[in-house]
Amino acid sequence: MNDERDEEAALVEPASEPPDVRDAFDDPDELERLRANAFESVGAPLAEGILYGIGMAEGLFDALLVAQRFAGPLGGAPGHAGPGLELLFTPSGLTPGRRFVGRIHRSVESALHRRRYGSAAGPICHVSAGYCAGWYSELLGQFVLVRERACAAAGGASCDYEAQPAEAWSDAWSASLRRVLDFEAMLESARKRLAATGEAVEGDMMGAFDPLSPAVHVWGPVMVLPYSGAGDTLAALDTIAADLGPDAIRVVVLDLTGARVDGVEATGITRVLDDLARRGLESVLVGVGDEETARWLGGERLSQPLRAPDISEGIHLAFQLATFS
C-alpha cells in the first residue's frame, strides 16, 4: 500500500526545472513536463493563461515558418510544422464573420492530462487551443482566439474547438485571456525568432519559388501549374495527380503570366478550368486581369474562378482555400 502511495506521489511531483518549450511540441513527455510545471507551480486558474500563451507563441512561429518554406499544408495534418505532435484541428467551414469550429480526435494533450491527473472537470487542452489560435491568427491575418468547448479528458468523445476573431468574443473567458495575451508583441517576437533562423521574413511566402520557372510546384495541398496550352497543362496535372494520389491536391494556382490569351487560348484555358472543377479542385488564376478574364470566360459561366494579382498573392489565397475546403 505504501508503495502505491509512493508511486502516486512520484507521478505528481512538480517538474524540478522548466522544460525546453520547443521540445514540448515534439515530445509527449516534454509536453507533460511543461503542463506539470504550470499546473503544479501556479495552479489551474493561472495555468490556462500561461499554457495558452505558450501554445499561441509556438503556433504563430510555426505558421510563419511553414508559410515561408511551404513545408506543409496549413490547417491540415501534420498538426505541427516539424515532426511533432498533432495539436492543430482542421476547420469545418468559415462564416462571413470568420467563425469556424473543428475537433481533434485522440488528443495527445488530453491523454497526458488523464494519465497524470485523471479526469478533468472541463476543457483542459490549453496548449492545443493556444497553438490553434496562433496558427489561425497568422493564416487569417488577425488576432483569433480559440476556445475548447468539449474535451476528451472531461468525458467528451473528442476535443472540440470554436474559433472567432478576438473582438467577436464577449465573455469572461476571452476577457481574462486578452488581459494576459499581447498579440502584437507575440507576433513581433515570432517574426524575430524566424529571422534568427535565417528564414526570409518579408511575408511574401515565396521561399525558393522561382516565378519564371515553367516547372510545376507542389506544396502540401497546393499546386502551382504554369499554363502551356491545354494539352500540355492537363498532361502535367495528370502526371502529378498519379504520383501523389487523387486526394493530395485541393487547390491549383493556374499561372497565366506571360501567356498571350487570344480566342484559341481562351478556349484552352476554359477547358483546363472545367477539368479542374470536374476533379473537385479549387482554382486560382494569376497573371491575367479581371476585364480580360471576364471577356474570354463570358458572363454565362456558372462558376467564375478566383483571381489574384500575382503569384505570391495567388499562393496565399490557395493555402486559405485549401484550409477551409
Q: Give a short account of the largest sheet.
A: 5 strands, mixed
CATH hierarchy: architecture of the largest domain: 2-Layer Sandwich
Which descriptor suits the 3D outline? elongated
**How do the SSEs run, as a string of H and E?**
HHHEHHEEHHEEHEHEHEH
Count of strand segments: 8
Average of per-residue pLDDT values: 78
CATH topology tier name of the largest domain: Muramoyl-pentapeptide Carboxypeptidase, domain 2
Question: Unreliable segments (pLDDT under 50, ≥5 consecutive)?
Answer: 1-18, 70-82, 201-213
Radius of gyration: 23 Å
Q: What is the number of helical segments per DSSP (H or I, 4+ residues)?
A: 11
From the structure above, extract its key features.
single chain; 325 residues; alpha/beta; Muramoyl-pentapeptide Carboxypeptidase, domain 2; Transcription Regulator spoIIAA; 2 domains; five-stranded mixed sheet; three-stranded antiparallel sheet; disordered N terminus
Put the structure in a nutshell.
With 325 residues, the chain is of the alpha/beta class. It contains 11 helices and 8 strands.
Description:
37% of the residues are buried. Residues 1-18, 70-82 and 201-213 have low confidence and may be disordered. The strands form 2 sheets. A 5-stranded mixed sheet has the order 4-5-6-7-8, sandwiched between helices. It is elongated. With 325 residues, the chain is an alpha/beta fold. α2 packs across α4. The longest helix has 26 residues, at 44-69. The protein has helices at 2-11, 28-42, 44-69, 108-117, 126-140, 172-180, 183-196, 230-244, 263-278, 290-297, 311-324; strands at residues 100-104, 144-150, 159-165, 217-219, 222-226, 251-255, 282-286, 306-308.
